[in-house]
Amino acid sequence: MNPKYRIVIAEDHTILREGLKSLLASYSEYEIVGEAGDGWETIRSVQKMKPDLFLTDLSMPRMNGMEAIREIKKISPISKVLVLTVHKAEEYVLGAFQAGADGYLLKDSTRAELMTAINKLLSGKKYITPEISEKVIKGYLEGRGGIKRRTSWGTLTRREKEVLKLIAEGYKSKEIATYLCISPKTVGKHRSNLMEKLNLHHVQALTALAIEKGLVERK
User: How far apart are the first and last CA of the chain?
Assistant: First the structure.
C-alpha cells in the first residue's frame, strides 16, 4: 500500500477550511495532517508535520501568507506550497512565487482544477491558474515599468512596512529604533532591505511609495 500524501491546510475562514478538508479527505491518497486559522498556527503545524503539500490563503491574521510561505520553505523545503486565494493582481501572483510558492489557484476555481494543481505540485511541477497566467506572462514580456517594485511590495515583512511608514513620516533612524524598541543597526538593516527589494535608493522615493500604498497620508 502506497503511503498517503500528507497535507496541511491554512485558511482563516472556518467554513472554507472545513470544505477543503472534506473534499480532500474523499480521496484515498491524501491525508489531512494539520490545519491552521492564522499565520502562527501555520508555522507550528508545518514544523510538527513536515507535510508533502501546504495549501494556504494569502490573507491571514498574525502573519500574512507571503511571510508564512517564506518561513515554511525554510522549515520544510520539501513541502510544496499551493496558494488558494481571491487575489488576481500580478503583485500577489509574482510575489507569492518569489516567496517560494509552487502553485497559484483562485478560490472560484473548480474542484477539477484544484485536483489538477495538487497533482502537478506533488509530481514536482509548478501550476498557475489559466485565468491569470496569460496576463502575468504578458507583463513579463512587455517589461512593464514598475513591475519589480509592485511585485516586491508583497515580499516586505510587517516590520519592514513599519520602518517604511516611519521613514516616510520623517523620523530618523535613532527615533525609529526607540519607537520600535530595536537597535539603530537593525533599523539600518531594514532600510537597506527596503531599498534593495523595492529598487528605490533615496528617502523621497520611499516616501512616495508609502503614500501610494496608503501607509501615510498625502500632505
Answer: 66
Q: How many domains does the chain have?
A: 2
Please state the rounded mean pLDDT for residues 40-57. Answer: 90
Q: What is the pTM of this model?
A: 0.64
What is the sign of the dihedral through the CA atoms of 132, 135, 141 and 145? negative
Q: Using DSSP, state whether 25 is helix, strand or coil.
A: helix
Q: What's the burial of 216, exposed, middle or buried (CB within 10 Å: 0-12/13-18/19+)? A: middle
pLDDT above 50 for 56: yes
Domain that holds residue 50: 5-140
Residues 75 and 116 in one domain: yes
* 109 and 181 together in one domain: no
pLDDT attached to residue 137: 54
